[in-house]
Amino acid sequence: MLTAKYGLLAPDDVVGPYDVYLTDQSGQYRAAWGEWVVAQLAERRLLAGVTVEVHASEAYTAPLREPLRRLGATLHEPLAGLRQGERLAWYGAAPEPDEDDVPDVAPLLDASNSVPPAQFLADGRTAAARPGLYSWWVDQAGAHDLSAGLGHRVTPGLVYAGRAGGVRPNGEASANTLWGRIGEMHLGGNRQFSTFRLTLAAALSESHEAPVDEASVTAWMHRHLRVAVLPLPPEAVAAGEAALLRLADPPLNLRDVPATELRRSLSRRRSALNAASRGTA
After folding, report:
1. pTM recorded for the entire structure
2. Could you read off the pLDDT of 79-93 as tens digits, one per residue?
3. How, if at all, do strands 132-138 and 173-174 pair?
4. Which residues, 6+ apart, have CB-to-CB distance to 41 below 8 Å?
5. For residue 75, what is the enclosing H or E element?
6. Whole-number CA gyration radius for the chain
7. Residue 84: its H or E element
8. What residues form DSSP beta bridges with 136?
9. Following CA atoms 6, 8, 14, 20 in sequence, which dihedral angle do they give, to the nearest 10 degrees?
10. Residue 119: closest CA among 109, 111, 108, 127
11. Where exactly are the structural domains of the chain?
12. For 143-177, what is the HEC assignment?
């Protein structure tokens, strides 16, 4: 949620009343505000290759364009040019997902359907060359490592889940696949292109009291994690992800889940690791 005074807020953040309108502020204020909001967003997730959809007036979207572009993100404005009444009509016309359109995600909640990373890779690209959902599972020793790094208890089991490909909110289809997400991004050795690897690196670096390198993260994943996948038609991916996150509430997910002390700790550690990687901490 964008605010003229507090920048980016989570839906459950509580703030007092304020009387600040971005359109009333100087160009210098709006430019600084845009940099600040994008920095807040970058603390929550990697922005390279991401489309950021903003529902706001030009006064709010204009300061965001250049900071987002520098970080490799694209700004999408589905309501651009619409008057107030047209905006309300747009929201009223947005279809609600039909329960029949929500896929059954139960296979991703069953540990018996998960396989070691080595088996996923051995099955090859063709076996996972489709969009869909996935869930990552950690063993007891791995859960202990994560708990030590985050300062909060992580139990063995399902710790992270997400989507690969599907249809974006703007109606465009993503070309990503389960193989691309898991085989190339998660297991491919670069946390700059994987929020999951960034999460693991942040937790493990804290428990090791020093930044862990990419090879160490990959080796740790092979020792302690398993992954389950569920290929889906592109149009079912978004609804399936929403159902999966609601049912599983994976502790290492930060987006579209309730705030917890563990997630706040994880967010701080990810920000610290990013800052250290840039040489600013």
Report:
1. 0.66
2. 887 877 777 777 776
3. unpaired
4. 8, 47, 52
5. strand 74-76
6. 20
7. helix 84-93
8. 160, 227
9. 30
10. 127
11. 2-93, 101-278
12. HHHHHHHHCCCCCCEEEEEEEECEECCCCCEECCC
pLDDT of residue 280: 45
Q: For 115, which DSSP code?
A: B
User: In b/e form, how buried is each residue of 236-265, taking b as 16+ CB within 10 angstroms?
Assistant: bbbbbbebbbeebebbbbbeebeeeebbeb
Residue, of 246 and 45, whose pLDDT is higher:
246
Q: Which helix (H) or strand (E) holds 51?
A: strand 51-53
Pair of tokens at residue 86: 């047209």
Which of 27-41, 200-214, 219-233 tops mean pLDDT?
A: 219-233
pLDDT at 216: 94
CA–CA distance, 145 with 231 (Å, rounded to integer): 30
Supply the pLDDT for residue 281.
41
Give yes or no for a contact between 235 and 167, defined as CB atoms under 8 angstroms apart. Answer: yes
pLDDT tens digit string along 75-124?
888 888 787 777 777 777 655 555 557 899 999 999 999 999 999 999 99
Structure tokens at 273: 């690791």
